[in-house]
Write a structure and sequence with these properties.
The complex is a heterodimer of chains A (525) and B (331). With 525 residues, chain A is an alpha+beta fold. Chain A folds into three domains: 120 residues, D-Maltodextrin-Binding Protein, domain 2 (3-Layer(aba) Sandwich); 124 residues, Alpha-Beta Complex (Dipeptide-binding Protein, domain 1), CATH 3.90.76.10; 204 residues, Roll (Dipeptide-binding Protein, domain 3). Helices cover 30% and strands 22% of the residues of chain A. In chain A, the strands form six sheets. Chain A has a seven-stranded mixed sheet, sandwiched between helices. In chain A, strands 16-15-17-13-18 form a five-stranded mixed sheet. Chain A has a four-stranded antiparallel sheet with strand order 4-5-7-6, with helices on one face. In chain A, helix 9 packs across helix 11, helix 13 runs antiparallel to helix 14 and helix 14 packs antiparallel against helix 15. Chain A starts with a helix and ends with a strand. Chain B has 331 residues and is an all-alpha fold. Chain B has one domain: MetI-like (MetI-like fold, Orthogonal Bundle), CATH 1.10.3720.10. Chain B has 14 helices and two strands. Chain B has a two-stranded antiparallel sheet. In chain B, helix 5 packs across helix 11 and helix 9 packs across helix 11. Classes of the chains: A alpha+beta (525), B mainly alpha (331). Chain A: It holds the Pfam family SBP_bac_5. Chain A: It comes from Nocardioides mangrovi. Chain A: This is ABC transporter substrate-binding protein. Chain A: InterPro entries: Peptide/Ni-bd, SBP_5, SBP_5_dom.
Chain lengths: 525, 331
């Protein structure tokens, strides 16, 4: 063995680096297939992995940028406005009977699935059935369907098992049922055996089709030439997966990426706004960072202490100092635009001396543990700021992070769970039931500590039958009085693009953040 | 020698068995619940309960362990709940990526180690400055080196890419090691591009181990070259190069090789961080996501795999040590 070969190897590595430097082949913004400004390819970052873009399992958020580009439902919410307004997509007309059990739809003519199959009423029942058979998170949206009748190719009559005023809203949900080609459904039935065909292929009617998917690395959408509507502004959209936000920032600044939808916390977003070469947007949404109080908490389980504690927090200040330009403080109980604001106000008023009294009284010698999911920048920021506020007021407090996989099980530990948690949730759709039932009743799924106000639960159950706003308002009042939950702010959906990407202001969703109607984006001339 | 190798590799089976039990117990008692990550945050309580039952997460622990072991013995690694794909498919995609990075890192470490070993041993003030600088470099964690590399070579100079393994999409070759695949398919531009993507992550992960190796090798060389047997060799007329090759390096290599084996474990840990920074779609990036989402099947498999890597590399190091130093065989 001699040192010489190794020394030569070292020289080779050095030479390689030098050659790389000289080649300029990897200069930022000059990758082989990197879109240049104004090209027909858009490059949008996915931060970290995404769930599989199957229309009946997608229930996270970012993957909807793929799903909702390739699939369409009967209805949707009009993009680009905060006030939720139903619009027909594959249905051109719709109506409901008086007790919200029978819904009739006229279907759009001249629509084809990406496999060439014409869209007719036969697709509706088959698509609903797949969602039921898959049986995952979003399947509840069609669980109440009793019968799907098809009097003709362009008419569908859906009968529910029980009255549900939120059914149209569920169909319009970003996670709502999508229409899938019956041909593809026959060829690729639901299976328990590993990878599903729909994980990487699509059979929808949307403006884009799924292109090359390299799971965890990159995803591609290609424009569908026979799309029934307005042709999308970009012929191709690439989604490279970037694991780290700092890298996303660098690539946005260098022009390697064209857009990042969501993901940015307030510090990152503010940094983007300082860059004059980038366009930044912050749109309203229904995402609502919420404080949950553990009813079994040794410190805050007592009604009087809990109510005094909640009254002692200046939530407007907490929202502003924690979330900065990515949120707006709210005084409403339900997310913005779900209920008229005059029936949806917090009843607990801020008391600037409450925390000091508690520090010397009920909370003396006790520690408040505030938990948050590590994946939530807003949860972390709110928890850290509240802990600092409490410590400043003389109440011992600590902010504790939980991984996504341990968060829910940590909250299920009753008296051993954290005393408080901050969770930034959103309703599945723009209907008060999608928030009230889910967040304020133990069976809903996101009543994180299982707190319950029985009268509110009863009112919410009654209100959904006939969309009774007054009952929702009463439920909101009871929820606020209980001090088990407090809606802290309205999250703003952030979007950052290169300046030559147009159409962003027309493409955002009124319900959730992190998702755009990508077909409405276009190169700015 | 053969008996030594068989005995060393035989212990690998025992280590892996213990590791699998440990990994299972930790993953099941770690307090995680992967179902929410799998179904989505807004999943209803009933949907969560149904999925827990379907996945067998409510079964008694012995039943779950038996299911885990029997699946493992049949080569079924289960479904990755964080990606909704079979763990086997994830490994097929990601293992070559980590192998490519690990091989490059190992190579870089050795090159850095050997080259710096000579500089490290320089006398005088210059040598002191070099030793001080190297000590500083060795103490820098991989993420700091990676960040510095990104700032210098991507942001300032624009020489190297900062994200992913290639600009052209996954290779069409068989190995999944992109640099190699490009060469095998005659696509030199692809290899070149993949190599450019590889340089920064491999350098970031190899600087620490390389410098550590250099220090050990320099110390060993300095001792062995000044030893009595080296003096005897010189007095018998051997050239300085021959003394260095036959006596110096051979004796100095033992501690350096041992160090390399230990450093490999640390290198695997740093690859987890480096893959995350450079969006390198390997096992490290997968592990970070799987731990966050309590994806027990994925965490268990990757832990076993990384454990096996470590044990195999160290077994190979021991065998190499035994080959160059008979005292190891006798001990």
């Amino acid at each position: 063995m001699s040192l010489r070969p190794l020394a030569l190897s070292a020289s080779a590595v050095a030479l390689l680096t030098a050659l790389t430097a000289c080649s300029g082949g990897a200069t930022p913004g000059a990758d082989a297939d990197t879109p240049s400004s104004g090209s027909a390819t858009l490059k949008v970052a996915f931060l970290g992995g995404i769930s599989t873009p199957d229309p009946d399992t997608a229930y996270d958020g970012p993957e909807l940028n793929l799903v909702n580009s390739a699939y369409e439902g009967l209805l949707a919410y009009k993009p680009g406005q905060a006030d939720p307004e139903l619009e027909g997509v594959l249905a051109t007309d719709w109506s409901a009977n008086d007790d919200n059990t029978v819904f009739t739809f006229t279907l759009r003519d001249g629509v084809t699935f990406h496999d060439g199959t014409p869209f007719t009423s036969a697709a509706v029942a088959a698509s609903f059935q797949r969602r039921t058979d898959v049986g995952e998170g979003p399947s509840y949206m069609v669980a109440g369907v009793k019968k799907v009748a098809t009097p003709s190719d362009d008419e569908v009559v859906i009968t529910l098992k029980y009255p549900n005023s939120s059914f149209l809203a569920l169909l319009a949900s970003p996670f709502g049922p999508k229409m899938i080609s019956p041909t593809a459904l026959k060829e690729h039935p639901v299976s328990d055996q590993g990878t599903d065909w729909f994980d990487s292929h699509d059979a929808g009617t949307g403006p884009y089709t799924y292109g090359d998917f390299h799971e965890g690395v990159s995803y591609e959408l290609d424009a569908y030439d026979d799309y029934w509507g307005t042709k999308p502004g970009y012929s191709e959209i690439d989604f490279p997966v970037v694991a780290d936000m700092s890298t996303v920032q660098l690539q946005m600044k260098s022009g390697d990426l064209d857009a990042v939808i969501g993901y940015a916390d307030d510090t990152t977003y503010d940094d983007f706004t300082q860059d004059s070469d980038l366009a930044t947007y912050a749109f309203s949404s229904m995402q609502t960072p919420t404080m949950f109080v553990n009813p079994q908490s040794a410190a805050l389980g007592d009604d009087a202490t809990r109510k005094a504690f909640v009254s002692g927090i200046d939530f407007a200040d907490l929202a502003t100092s924690s979330l900065g330009s990515t949120a707006e403080p709210t005084t409403e109980v339900f997310p913005k635009n779900l209920l008229p604001s005059d029936v949806d106000q917090q009843v607990i008023q801020y008391d600037s001396g409450a925390l000091a009294s508690l520090a010397d009284g009920a909370l003396s010698g006790k520690t408040i543990t505030i938990g948050y999911p590590a994946s939530s920048p807003s949860g972390k920021s709110l928890s850290d700021h509240l802990a600092a506020t409490l410590n400043g007021a003389g109440i011992d407090a600590k902010s504790v992070s939980f991984g996504s996989g341990t968060y829910y099980s940590a909250l299920a530990k009753g008296a051993d769970a954290p005393d408080i948690t901050f969770f930034s949730g959103f309703p599945d759709t723009a209907h008060p039931d999608s928030w009230g039932y889910v967040f304020y009743t133990p069976d809903g799924g996101l009543d994180l500590f299982g707190a319950e106000v029985p009268e509110a639960t009863k009112l919410l159950g009654e209100a959904v039958e006939d969309d009774d706003i007054a009952k929702y308002g009463q439920a909101a009042e009871l929820v606020s009085e209980s001090a088990y939950w407090y809606s802290v702010a309205t999250s703003l959906g952030t979007v950052v693009t290169q300046k030559d990407v147009g159409g962003v202001e027309d493409s955002w969703n009124p319900v959730i953040t992190g998702v755009l109607d990508l077909d409405l984006l276009h190169p700015e001339s | 020698m053969l008996r030594f190798a068989v005995r060393r590799l035989g212990s690998l089976v025992l280590v892996l068995l213990c590791l699998s039990i440990l990994v299972f117990v930790l993953s099941r008692y770690g307090g995680g619940d992967p179902v929410r990550s799998y179904l989505g945050n807004n999943a209803s309580a009933s949907a969560v309960a149904a999925m827990r039952e379907k996945l067998g997460l409510d079964d008694p622990m012995p039943v779950q362990f038996w299911d885990y072991v029997s699946r493992l013995l049949h080569g079924d690694l289960g479904m990755s709940l964080s990606t909704r794909r079979p763990v086997r498919a994830e490994l097929a995609d990601r293992l070559p990526a980590t192998l490519e990075l690990a091989i490059a890192t190992l190579l870089f470490s050795v090159v850095i180690g050997v080259v710096l070993a000579r500089v490290y041993a320089l006398p005088g003030c210059f040598g002191g400055i070099v030793r001080f600088t190297l000590l500083g470099a060795a103490s820098a964690p991989a993420f700091l080196v990676a960040t510095a590399g990104v700032l210098i070579f991507f942001v300032q100079l624009g020489w190297l890419p900062v994200s992913g393994r290639t600009s052209y999409g996954p290779s069409e070759g068989l190995s999944g090691i992109y640099v190699l695949d490009g060469l095998l398919t005659g696509n030199l531009a692809y290899s070149w591009d993949a190599l450019q993507h590889l340089l920064l992550p491999a350098f970031a992960a190899s600087l620490g181990p390389g410098v550590a190796l250099a220090r050990v090798l320099a110390d060993g060389l300095s001792t062995s070259i000044g030893s009595a047997y080296a003096r005897t060799a010189r007095s018998l007329g051997e050239s300085e190069r021959s003394v260095l090759r036959r006596h110096g390096l051979r004796n100095a290599a033992s501690p350096a090789l041992s160090m390399l084996g230990v450093q490999f474990g640390m290198m695997l840990s740093s690859l987890v961080v480096v893959e995350q920074i450079f969006s390198w779609n390997g096992l490290g990036q997968y592990l970070v996501m799987a731990i966050d989402r309590a994806d027990t099947n994925a965490v268990a498999t990757i832990s076993l795999l990384l454990g096996a890597f470590y044990v195999v590399i160290n077994a190979l190091v021991d065998i190499a040590l035994a080959a160059i130093d008979p005292r190891v065989r006798l001990s």
